[in-house]
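The freezer alarm interrupted the setup, so I double-checked each line after restarting. Inputs confirmed:
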Amino acid sequence: MKITMIGSGYVGLVTGACFAEWGHQVTCVDKDVHKITRLQQGEIPIYEPGLDVLVATNAERRRLKFTTDLPSAVADADAVFIAVGTPARHNDGDADLTFVYSAAKEVAVAIRGYTVIVTKSTVPVGTGDTVERIVARERPDAEFAVVSNPEFLREGSAIDDFLKPDRVVLGTDDDRAASVMQLIYQVLEETPSRIVVTKRRTAELIKYAANAFLATKITFINEMADLCEAVGADVQDLAVGVGLDHRIGMPFFNAGPGYGGSCFPKDTTALLRTAQDYGVPLRLVEETVGANNARKRRMALKVIEAAGGSIDGLTVAVLGLTFKPDTDDMREAPSIPLIEALQRSGATIRAHDPQGMRHAMSLLSEVAFCGDVYSCCEGADVVVLMTEWETYRHLDFGRLRKAVRVPTLVDLRNIYNRDVAERHGFSLTGIGRAHST
Ligand code: NAD
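Predicted 3D structure, all chains:
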């Protein structure tokens, strides 16, 4: 199939490269000239494990191209996927669909012959109807169908998630469009992946419902962690004891500093706006959003307590800035409110992240960004472990002890046990652990 991706960001680029890997002819389009120039030169503008090899291999096989020329990339396509950003609107938190609608207009003008237009971006219920109206208005003569195909990949394991999905959701009532989509995903027929074909509105809502459920699951274990601290129980053991029930499950059941990232925060608030528009209260999701926002802000208090009640004039070393490991994405990372709150309380911040520092530099001010963990911890009064990058799982505590001024570790990902830390002279504060300070 001939496929065009509109938007070559985390989703568009991974999706395009994976479709090419399945043998389709793919053109990735982006408005960002710098991004496309880098891609044409074989550089990958984002950090996603394995993406460099996948892109290089498929570009070499001449199955994957990059361009800023949308009209020519769309003209001969069987399917055009819109994978542009849908950030939260500043005024009300609803999804900002400006990029989707302007992409739809540009696509409408350029299509030739029957074309399936697919919304890959996460879009509120009814967006497919609007895209359909836009295309019909721009091109009353066009033969097309609009399909919803939400994406569930996770940054950091995006390629595996895309190539071996739990499920693919296709939202359409149009048989011809459904056949095109089935051909695109044909390789999955031989695999355990399920293809769910449903109405377009249901498909649009599935994406939000899935993210809201996962956000709620994380918030649930975070609240249990708080209770564990109060009653002297251990949330790590609790999560195993509860999560081994297959109806509940272990994934996404780790207590931490609150969820962040480019999806959960914006998708949960957009879902709430949809629910309000239709007069249907979603109280669980409302509570999840509120509890998570409060939690992210509260994490600074945990650090201040661990430092003895005041952080004024002290130096804090923050290990990990991205919202999760194996990505350079800093959108809505819990490290941002934590660092800002500590700075407001008078702390000096030193920070390290294996991939996130380039983006972090534009989001945070007066932070000393350091090239490695141990120089980051030089002279620190508190070390805060913020993101569970693999490299932070193997800290050399001997070296760390020599680097810091005061051996206090706040481990917001529960990587280390008290015994290990204490053996090296560190006091440890975790999340929801028995005897947490
Ligand atoms: P992104 O910001 O990384 O990429 C979007 C790209 O679209 C940018 O490069 C931008 O320049 C480009 N663009 C915008 N308008 C354009 C136009 N008219 N023509 C060509 N290019 C245009 O965003 P992302 O993280 O890839 O997310 C895209 C969508 O996928 C969002 O709706 C998001 O919610 C959803 N999603 C994201 C993830 C994730 O993990 N990032 C996972 C699932 C779904």
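Quick read of the result. The mean pLDDT is 97.
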